[in-house]
Amino acid sequence: MATKNHNRPRKPIRTLEMDVGQEGIAQISLSGAASIERSDIEIVDGPDALKHAEELAFMEEEVVINIHETDDPNAEPYVQVGSNGKIIYITRGEDVIIKRKYLERLARAKRVGYQQKHLNSSDPLKYNRLDMKTALQYPFELKEDLNPRGRDWLVKILKEAA
Q1: pTM flag (> 0.85)
Q2: What are phi and psi of 44, to 5 degrees?
Q3: Dist. CA 45–CA 67, nearest whole Å
């Protein structure tokens, strides 16, 4: 179980205010084949080139997060997060200390929704257009990350497509 800690003041990162993945359009052709177009695709570099051992140490560092509470009555009160076969449960709405490897799993837990706009039904290519929207499954706030590379690392993970 993640550890509570309320004594680490620092400016938080609010994931609800950040870009998550990239938007795009899913198209279904007359033959039934689907394709995805993404406008404004941004090439996202990975974290700084680290040697394998340094990267493992980086992922074991502790950070303080708070997973946002939800108004969904069916949502689980504890968020289950796993890495390398080990599972932890994080209580929503509380500041907790977790290892960065679990933060990565949270940042990569995204859902993609599709919406079909009612366009000209006489043109199947326009009518079968689906707009994509990406969001975090469990929005959270990163309260503290003492590693100077941590913020850039998280921003890059969040920008990667789902």
Answers
A1: no
A2: -110, 115
A3: 26
